[in-house]
## 1
Amino acid sequence: MKQVFAAALLAGSLFFAAAATARERTERPLTADSKALFDDQAAAIRQQMQSGGRYEFVSDAERSEVERDLQRIAAVLDRHADARSFSDGDKAELLQAQENVNAVLTRNDGRRLVCVRERPTGSHLGKDKCQTFAEIERARRSSETEVRRLQMKSPGPSGLPNQSDLRRGGGN
């Protein structure tokens, strides 16, 4: 009886350990294993960084950083026929550039789920609110646009004309 219980306990703990590691694994956008595979991945990454793509929220500075690292990876892969001929320096350069690209893309992944624990007004109990990074970023941009629109529309302090009045020539 003890052996059956011990086996069940061991199987259960292995199941939960496997589930925990599966949850912790993240998809890596770039795995530069070969030149042909890399070229396909680089083209897909460049396409997904365009408007409407999975990585559309990559800033201009980060976009140029990703492009620079993609070029570094391509240069290293061009120098070698296969992974066995890599020098230690080339391996380090390849891995560093690959990790930089993956870090930027993972941070700006529109599908990444972001959960925040909030306490509704009048309650002591917290509630989880989960949204994708894309939903959060679109809401932020929409709010900024609306604030700018309202600032252009409202009268200035002390009744002074606002910016839109000045543009129309109504400030005189």
Note: Confidence is low (pLDDT under 50) at residues 4-24.
## 2
Amino acid sequence: MVEYDPSGGARSDAPSPESAYAAALGPAAENTAVTRLQTALRHSGQYPRASLEREFRLRRAALADRLALESGEECDAAEAARTAYELVAFDLSDGRFVLGPAGPGSSRWEDSARPYVRQEYERWAELTDGGRDARLRDTGGS
């Protein structure tokens, strides 16, 4: 299983942060989207719960990774590692939503789960235009 690694675990076989987050919303807009997803999870019923939870975990982990990369602070890196690990754990228990070529149990993520987040976010962003899907536009989140 993947352990916490605050270092960020740069790997040549995972997308670079620049590539993974190229289509991402700005940090403030992404934080708003993550908060809305968290609220929706508390009041589920509108969307399939597992899909919604996966999106929440992915976007929260990606946002934490981006903030850690920007700040360089150890506490932010630890938070990014923690949320990345939570995504891996979720995907190991319910692999229906894995999008990238290397699954959550891959040896690629032995050093760090943060590159897994980048892989998954990059693919998710390709499919959703970085989260600018109809659901967000309808709620003013773009």
Note: Residues 1-7, 134-142 have pLDDT under 50 and may be disordered.
